[in-house]
Amino acid sequence: MKEPCQYPSPGVIAIARRVKPGLEEAFEEATKGVILAASTFPGYMGSDVLYPLTKKGEWQLILRFDTAKHLQEWEESVICQGWIARAEALTVDGAKVMRVNSLEAWFALPEIPNALPPPKWKTAIVSAVGLYPVISTLPNFLRPITSGLPIWIASLVNISIMMPLMTWVIMPQVTRLFKGWLYPSQSKKK
């Protein structure tokens, strides 16, 4: 049977750091340098800087590449390693690094770190397996609370409960249940 056509998933990395007091301006310049350097690499799609609300808050840099492979090439480059060393001299507590691509966070398992995400057709099937019982039962369960509300507010209440439930309760369990199918090569190594 022929494998369905797959489009590569984008590679997105979010890096959070706390800047040493008095070095904010130097860190901002370093952040601009990272963005400029990353923009010269294949597949670079853009970036965002989220500034801290307070001086002791975290700076966050988000870099987007068209594929996880292009992101990996950037991360493994000598240029990136140089910028990491420079950032570490300006910050405290090390960096918090998170790689998340849309709903792929539902399929991340701590026992399989840094694994490439499963094919989208598999994630669609497993998402449906987890989502179907929730969307079939939750609105009925909440109907005594939401029946007198306008439909858009009732939908907002349902979604506000459904999404955290899917993210932190349902999908971690469903992903573990289907781990061997979603990550066949990594499951064989264990």
TrEMBL record:
This protein's record includes keyword Glycoprotein: no
Superkingdom, taxonomy of origin: Bacteria
ABM domain sequence ranges: 13-85
InterPro entries (alphabetical): ABM_dom, ABM_predict, Dimeric_a/b-barrel
Transmembrane segments: 149-171
Record key words, sorted: Membrane, Monooxygenase, Oxidoreductase, Transmembrane, Transmembrane helix
Record-linked SUPFAM superfamilies: Dimeric alpha+beta barrel
One term of GO molecular function: monooxygenase activity
Keyword Transmembrane carried by entry: yes
Name listed for the protein in its UniProt record: Antibiotic biosynthesis monooxygenase
Species: Nostoc piscinale CENA21
